[in-house]
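Let's practice the habit of predicting before peeking. Look at the sequence and jot down your guess about where helices and strands might fall. Then scroll down.
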Amino acid sequence: MNTIRTCVLLLCLFVGSVSSVQRLNNIDDLRNTHYSKREPNHGLKLLFWFAQHVIDIDENYISQMDIEPSRGDYGFHWFENRERILPTLSSEIKGYYSVGNLRYPRATELPAYVRKDHYISPHSPDSNLDRLIVCVNRRDPTRLHSVFITSLIYQLDELDPHLTFEINPALIHQIQCPCNCTSHHYNDYLFSTLTSNRKDINDVQKTLQTAKIIFKEPGLAAFLTSTEYDIKYSYRSFAVRYHCLATSSAKELREPLTQCHITAEIKLEIKTSATGLAKLTWEHIPANVMKEYVFIYVAVCKNTDFSNAHKYHECPKFGVKSSSGSVDTSVYLNFGLQPQLLLYKLVPLVTNGNRGMPTKIKPYRASLQLYTENGKACAQLYIKKTFSDWKNVFSYSWVGFYKNSQEANDQYYTSIYVVKMEKVEKYSTGEYYVYKYQSSLDIAPGVQIRFLLEKKYDDRNVLARTQPWKDTKYPITLQTINDDLHPGLPPELLPHLSNPESFHGPEFDEANGIIPIRILGSDASLQLYANDGKACARLYIKKTFSDWKNVFSYSWVGFYKNSQEANDQYYTYIYVVKMEKMGNDNIMDYDIYQYKSSLDIAPEVQIRFLLDETYDNMLAQTEPWEGANISQITISCFQS
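Done guessing? Here is the structure:
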């Protein structure tokens, strides 16, 4: 009876618009959509977080949000509904706010299980497209009228009308009250999906026992399972890397399942030092990584530096000498900092094409190149796009793979008809189409490939021969690494150093997850954050609170080194009427003021709002600053 009453009252709160958008009434409806079914989609996890942690139902069954979207909590921001896919509203009464853009300010306040897949697969076309949109009362932005889930169309920044749905409050209630599934039940389900149609059940069972796959967020596993989120896809690489991690012998590492070099959960952290500087820590770098890569660094960069090669190379780097450790940096804590792991190999002085430029296939507008991948000899064919009838001309043409250049044309190791070579889409955007083929021939000194016009072996039929593959050896032993960039590496070996394989985690949260605290008896809130390594205060004043300067004429914010200090033991303070107003657009419902103090941000730092110059009228105090901002990344496999 209580459940029915809850859903009815929730329904009353959600109504307010008629829409052509499909409404999802229950879990079955959600499961039957194509919305957010596998990583790195984060829409279902976003919906779960919203239902579990944003909507509050009190003892009177009254539902309101515990946050204020108009204040920017969790990255919420105004949504204009330009495409008119959602119902048209009276802007004086209601408004739309969107959340889920993981690059938006304060999106780092969202829980790690919502954000993590984006940081593991940041360049995937499916990454960071999902959104949740709420319709709220403009006069009371915590009052919820309706909820929508949607996805953007890739590269268009527009809602996809086929992936836009309104969420019935009954569905919200179902998510809030999931089945009583434990993590063990979930592991049983995952085990059954991974082992379906497979014979290696014992291996998978050992994998799961080793991996200890557990969702720490209660109910999330049951929800994802009930919506048919592709668990098998999400955790296939997880199972493989733990299988790899358990193997150690050279024979085992040659097995098809273990064609990867690094298989671990490597944890990177940006911690807060006692002087407001970033402290990098790392854990669980496997022994095989420490052995295989000649230089390993941790670095701290701004997230905008990753797309700028010049700035990227200027990021502070610190040599790693053990699988776990920490290092103090001279970088002040600021929003956007990201920890990064950099791994360098020695490679031949030449590229994987062994410095062999493509060999022209005379007299046609095409070229042939020998290169290597996975230790095998490979062929790459370049066809100029103006050569439109090449498949007719080359209908019987083939590429032969030879162990050395002295072998006769009919003594090839293997061959491939050029019309059967695989097109490489990502390289076929310029003036050429590119096709490739990986042979079964091991790459070795002397290997050569040849292009023959038809199935004849006379030299007149050979239109192209690549240069034989060259041998490359390293004449000296590398020295022990220090904290300087590549010390002990002779200048003649610098060209042998590969571009780093790099992985980074979520950016540092300037507010360290501290949500604004409401100032008692007013339409205002207080937040602690860090900027340039200093403790800062941010004050949110609702625009309808027009006489706040009179009310707060003697109010002040105190900065404290820890939460145990008395109100009169502040390190420094600022009168709120003297705080600096931030420039923000007019569609927000709050004016925002800020102040950067002289106190170094450090664990346990706290700020408090006091109504007047006495010390007993404290109206708000923030949570103490925590010591670490964790950004864990998962590395499944590195390519050799």
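How did you do? The chain has five domains: 2-176, 183-259, 267-349+478-504, 359-465, 517-624.
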